[in-house]
Task: inverse folding
């Protein structure tokens, strides 16, 4: 009886250490996954000032897909373009404008200028 108690305690300690190690490894994997998700871009946010007295809707190409984005008249605000990338090309009446998330743009006479 005296020999079985230390033996049982030893087995219990071994199981508890192996369980602790498994939990620690899973936590480590979860932290790596969350860092990867934080570094991914899911949208492009632009701050804009539309000096024109009319709304504009421009074609935008990002991550290989084309979308349309509306800019309200005579307004300073932000617009968000849903995307898996952090950059895009906006097609206005003056040509193409390359933008990236966080850019500030001005719209005047239907043309976009990155500030």
Result:
């Amino acid at each position: 009886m005296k020999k079985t108690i230390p033996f049982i305690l030893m087995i219990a300690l071994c199981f508890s250490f192996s369980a602790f190690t498994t939990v620690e490894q899973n936590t480590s994997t979860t932290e790596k996954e969350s860092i990867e998700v934080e570094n991914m871009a899911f949208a492009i946010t632009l701050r804009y000032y539309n000096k024109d007295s009319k709304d504009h809707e421009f074609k935008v190409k990002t991550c290989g897909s084309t979308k349309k984005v509306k800019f309200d008249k005579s307004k300073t605000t932000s617009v968000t373009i849903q995307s898996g990338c952090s950059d895009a090309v906006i097609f206005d009446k003056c040509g193409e404008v390359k933008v990236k998330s966080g850019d500030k743009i001005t719209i005047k006479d239907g043309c976009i200028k990155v500030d």
